[in-house]
Amino acid sequence: MNINRLKEIREDNDLLQKDVAKVLHIKQQQYSEYEIGKRLIPINYLSELADYYKVSIDYLLSKTDERKPYPKSKIY
Fold first, then answer.
1. Of these four, 11, 34, 41, 76, which has the most CB atoms within 10 Å of its CB?
2. What is the 3-state secondary structure (H, E, C) of 10-26?
């Protein structure tokens, strides 16, 4: 995972690590370890961050440079 993307999007939104940690209901130190690559970020946190920033998980993982989230699919 491109850990720089987490820091980049946080800074683009004028947020501090403690602000994002609060959104995830975790401590700032734990979030910091995700951002520097010391810990792998769980998928549920990636999902929450994608919703929070209104981007796709692929964008957070640097699989695409397209920020726009994918449309929700309908299950029939």
1. 34
2. HHHCCCCHHHHHHHHCC
d(CA 5, CA 59): 8
Number of domain units in the chain: 1
Say if 36 falls within a structural domain.
yes
| Burial of 7 (C-beta count, 10 Å sphere; 0-12/13-18/19+) | middle
Q: Tell me the C-alpha distance between 75 and 52, whole Å.
A: 24
Per residue in 43-55, pLDDT (tens digit) is 999 999 999 999 9
Say which residue the tokens 């980049």 belong to.
Answer: 8
Tell me which DSSP letter residue 29 carries: H
Model pTM score: 0.84
